Amino acid sequence: MASSKFFSFSILLLSTTVLYVTEAQESLPKTMVLYLQETVKGPNSTVSPIIGLTGKDWSFHQFGTIFAVDDPVMVSPNQFSSVVGRAQGLLVVSAQDGANMFVSLSIVFTNLQYSGSSIEIQGVSRQSEKYRELSVVSGTGKFRFVKGYAGFQTTSYDAQTSHSTISLTLTFQ
Fold first, then answer.
1. Nearest Cα to Cα of residue 142 among 31, 15, 16, 27
2. Cα angle vertex 161, ends 158, 166, to 5°?
3. Chunked mean pLDDT (size 10), the chain, 173 residues
4. Pair 29, 41: CB distance under 8 Å
5. What is the pTM of this model?
6. Strands (DSSP E) along the chain, which ranges?
7. CA 161, CA 11: separation in Å to the nearest integer?
8. For domain 30-172, is the CATH number 3.40.50.2300?
9. Domain boundaries of the chain, sorted by first residue
């Protein structure tokens, strides 16, 4: 009798959990395109080296250099459009030849229907490639349990201001 009640309760709990996760995931788009506005020099820098090897140049191609990132995220490539969130995290030059960078990035939404939610991105970015693909490993809020991949592509770069616009295409399973 007790095992029958436990079994019934377990089935009820499992079906409620599956229903909750299914409902949360159904409202998500399959693809989202966002734009990161990145500045690497000057007083408004959004990427900054925080540590590196002693006696070495702290650059994007120097093994061991770690950068902190806090890029504005927008829905259009125009750098003056509305900010919908921030891309916050760490970049680590992880290949001894400087070719690859380990990325741990949170897309933290502060505006629109996803405010308070985040998407977690992690993986190796091959710096010389025009299109770089990383894993979407999880999320919070409306993106809880999300999986997929993130495609990064630099769409514009201004050498005078050290400003880049990076297209971020998120594809969810």
1. 27
2. 50
3. 56 46 66 98 95 90 96 96 97 97 98 95 97 98 97 97 97 96
4. no
5. 0.82
6. 31-39, 47-51, 66-74, 83-93, 100-109, 118-126, 131-140, 148-158, 163-172
7. 59
8. no
9. 30-172
